[in-house]
Specification:
The protein is an alpha/beta fold. The chain has a seven-stranded parallel β-sheet with strand order 6-9-12-15-18-21-23, covered by helices on one side. It has a six-stranded parallel β-sheet with strand order 7-10-13-16-19-22, with no helix packed on it. The protein has a five-stranded mixed β-sheet with strand order 3-4-2-1-5, with helices on both faces. It starts with a strand and ends in a 10-residue tail after the last strand. Helices cover 15% and strands 28% of the residues. It is globular and about 45 Å long. It has two domains: 85 residues, Rossmann fold, CATH 3.40.50; 107 residues, UDP N-Acetylglucosamine Acyltransferase, domain 1.
């Protein structure tokens, strides 16, 4: 049995908690600690220490073999892209982290630094880029291509042959018809059904629902 590799997590919020659970279940890494906001330094996240803020990243990376970006992505991928570039500049290429409760076909690919959460499915012929989030119970159907720095949210369904440009966010519960092209840096709101191609930078609001408020 080989020793587990130490890993530093860049981000200490809610997405980091979900990543911690995946890493623990995967069982291949020991979490050295997290990078957080100034007010989070010195606290603990699920028992792991927040070791420092952004200014401490270079020093902490020098002491840790690998790192993973664990901040979420909704409105913009910019913070995750910035951290990704910082990791590469420091000679770190994060591994893909795949939950043992996800299914990734042996005929699919998942890029470096991407996280595949519990219950997600990546089917044959699919290609997922670098530094992506495939959240819980999302579906990436056969022959779909997801670009770098994308977030496919919980329960979203990307049907066969869909192409998603880099930096795009797909909201929870959204469904993308087969063969659709979604451009770069788009935001597809929660619960949407996408039946036509979306140009770069498209902003599709969440599907409207009837309020339950009295």
């Amino acid at each position: 049995m080989t020793d587990k590799t130490s890993i530093l997590l860049l981000g200490a919020g809610g997405h980091a908690r979900a990543c911690i659970d995946v890493i623990e279940q995967q069982g291949r890494h020991v979490i050295a600690g997290l990078i957080g906001l100034p007010g989070e330094v010195g606290s603990h996240v699920l028992g792991y220490p927040v070791l420092g803020g952004d200014s401490e990243i270079p020093a902490l990376l020098a002491r840790t073999p690998i790192a993973l970006i664990t901040i979420g992505q909704i409105k913009t991928p910019e913070p995750r892209i910035r951290l990704w570039q910082q990791l590469l500049a420091n000679g770190k290429c994060p591994p893909a982290i795949i939950s043992p409760y996800a299914h990734v076909s042996q005929h699919a690919t998942v890029g470096e630094g991407s996280v595949v959460m519990h219950g997600a499915i990546v089917n044959a012929g699919a290609r997922v880029g670098k530094n992506c989030i495939l959240n819980s119970q999302s579906l990436i159907e056969h022959d779909t291509v997801v670009g770098d720095h994308c977030h496919v949210s919980t329960g979203a369904r990307l049907n066969s042959g869909v192409q998603v440009g880099e930096g795009t966010f797909i909201g929870s519960g959204s469904s993308i018809r087969q063969g659709i092209h979604i451009g770069r840096y788009c935001v597809i709101g929660m619960g949407q059904t996408i039946l036509k191609d979306c140009a770069d930078g498209s902003q599709v609001p969440p599907r409207k629902v009837v309020s339950c408020a009295p």
